[in-house]
Design goal:
By secondary structure, this protein is of the alpha/beta class. Helices cover 36% and strands 11% of the residues. The strands form three sheets. A seven-stranded mixed β-sheet has the order 1-7-6-5-4-2-3, with helices on both faces. A three-stranded antiparallel β-sheet has the order 10-12-11, covered by helices on one side. It has a two-stranded antiparallel ribbon with strand order 8-9. It is globular. The structure holds pyridoxal-5'-phosphate (PLP).
């Protein structure tokens, strides 16, 4: 095996800026004052803030070194299942930074913002085309915010039918934000188990769906990386009882340009532009979670909405049935520019993104299924889920495997999620990894499995190549030590 990346070279011990400062050192030269000195009332300002005295180079080196401690998609493989940590082409960053976009003030009147409004309008059309829905709002700022918007639309719809309902069905493979969004909207979550194939069984839905249930939230492909192949039947059962179907589209990376989600019976769908559409994520935002809806739900979309008339664009609040405003202005603009640029630069090749993402995940699944236990042995979509059942006999756990990957320069995949797979190891390589890197990842995991058999203690000690070794995770959370 080749030398792992990210584990050689200088690892600098970085002191705090306060430990580096030296009294009187300055980061800039201030021109001589041409006004007389004045006394400062020390009672008002006290001793002043405790800033360290540093030169410019001290500060530049400090932050540049710290930035090299951060692992990201730009430094190495980051196969984080359920999160689509893929490479974001730099051209999309460049377009978002164009002065006309980056400096556009959100309070400018529509007549001075025609370019931005046109971009909103066109992006809505592109996302409508990709998903198969007639109407889109770009306002929500995250996937979970899209879910909340969707639940508010469910509520507004049922109110308009004369009977607000109280429950929402949530499959056991759902992301935790699904029940949270339903609860924020006042709905009680009713859990539904997935079947032995890892997907929803229409009979289980029929057993719990009633006329007090507002609808169901379905993630498709689901968080086991499996396509919900009964989605049409499930939607029919829910619709026949007057309910609605929410589609969690966070896993859109597997089906872009391939599945027309609008045709599968979904009524409201959110997308995570910061997963599939070229905005880097992982640091907690900002994000963007547009919602796409069917024609009968369009009137409930948040306001303002972009309206075009004779080639002129305005933002209109004139939609009396709207659920109202759910974000400042019209969403997180920079992210929308990136998504627009991404879709424009790929065109019809967007479908290839999904084809490669699915191919890569299946390649990993097939290459590793003799090495790690594969609870659902069937073709997967963009991610595959293994667990540590085969390593259990050597007292090696998923956590040990994940930590050992760090020693090998790979960010660990998502672990212990989804909850339906005990000890889950959820791998999403995405379309952006090349075959050589995927093969190296597979070889690394095979070598770790061999270590588990031959010298499990090495795994219990991992990571050893990092600056910070194995942490007591409880203590680290309770008493964080933030010194380098
Ligand atoms: C990421 C994710 C979400 C939540 O999206 P955020 O933008 O993080 O709020 C919801 N569902 C699934 C399946 C996800 O992977």
């Amino acid at each position: 095996m080749k030398e792992p990346i990210g584990t050689t070279g200088l690892i600098l011990n970085e002191p705090l800026l306060w430990e580096k400062g030296s009294p009187g050192r300055m980061g800039m030269s201030i021109p001589a004052s041409d006004v007389p000195d004045a006394e400062i009332d020390s009672e008002l300002v006290g001793d002043g803030p405790d800033f360290p005295d540093l030169g410019e180079l001290d500060v530049v080196r400090h932050y540049t070194r710290l930035s090299t401690w951060n692992f990201g998609v730009d430094t190495g493989m980051y196969p984080l299942g359920s999160c689509t940590m893929k490479y974001n082409p730099k051209t999309n960053e460049r377009q978002a930074a164009l002065p006309g976009f980056a400096n556009a003030h959100p309070l400018l009147p529509p007549e001075l913002s025609q370019g931005a409004l046109k971009l909103y309008s066109q992006l809505q059309q592109y996302l409508a085309e990709v998903t198969g829905f007639p109407a889109v709002s770009l306002q929500p700022a995250a996937g979970s915010h899209g879910e909340l918007t969707g639940m508010m639309i469910f509520h507004a719809y049922h109110l308009s039918q004369g009977k607000p309902r109280t429950k929402v069905l949530i499959p056991d493979t759902a992301h935790g934000t699904n029940p949270a969004s339903a609860a924020l909207c006042g709905y009680k979550s009713i859990p539904v188990k997935s079947n032995a194939q890892g997907v929803l069984d229409p009979a289980d839905i029929a057993a719990v769906m009633d006329e007090d249930t507002a609808g169901i939230m379905v993630t498709n492909p689901n968080t086991l990386g499996l396509f919900e192949d009964h989605i049409g039947e499930v939607a029919d059962i829910v619709h026949n009882k007057g309910g609605l179907v929410y589609g969690d589209g966070a896993n859109m990376n597997a089906i872009m340009g391939i599945v027309n989600v609008g045709c599968t019976g979904v009524d409201v769908l959110h997308l995570n532009l910061h997963k599939s559409f070229s905005t880097p994520h992982g640091g907690g935002g900002p994000g963007s979670g547009p919602v796409c809806v069917t024609e009968r739900l369009e009137r409930f979309l948040p306001v303002p909405r972009v309206v075009e008339q004779d080639g002129q664009y305005t933002l209109s609040d004139d939609f009396p049935d709207s659920i109202g405003k759910i974000h400042a202005f019209y969403g997180n603009f920079g992210i929308l520019v990136r998504a627009y640029s991404y879709i424009r630069s790929l065109g019809a090749d967007l479908r290839k993104v999904s084809q490669y993402a699915v191919l890569n995940a299946n390649y990993i699944k097939e290459s590793l299924k003799d090495t790690f236990h594969l609870p659902y042995d069937r073709p997967c979509m963009h991610e595959c889920v293994f667990n540590d059942a085969k390593q259990e006999t050597f007292s090696v756990t998923t956590l040990d495997i994940a930590k050992r990957l760090i020693d090998n320069g790979v960010h660990p995949p998502t672990i212990y999620f989804p909850l339906v797979v005990p000890g889950a190891l959820m791998i999403e390589p995405t379309e952006s990894e090349c075959k050589e890197d995927i093969d190296r990842f597979i070889d690394t995991l095979k070598a770790i499995a061999a270590e588990a058999r031959e010298k499990p203690d090495a795994l219990h000690a991992a990571p050893v190549n990092t600056k910070v070794k194995r942490l007591d995770e409880t203590l680290a959370a309770r008493k964080p030590c933030l010194r380098g």
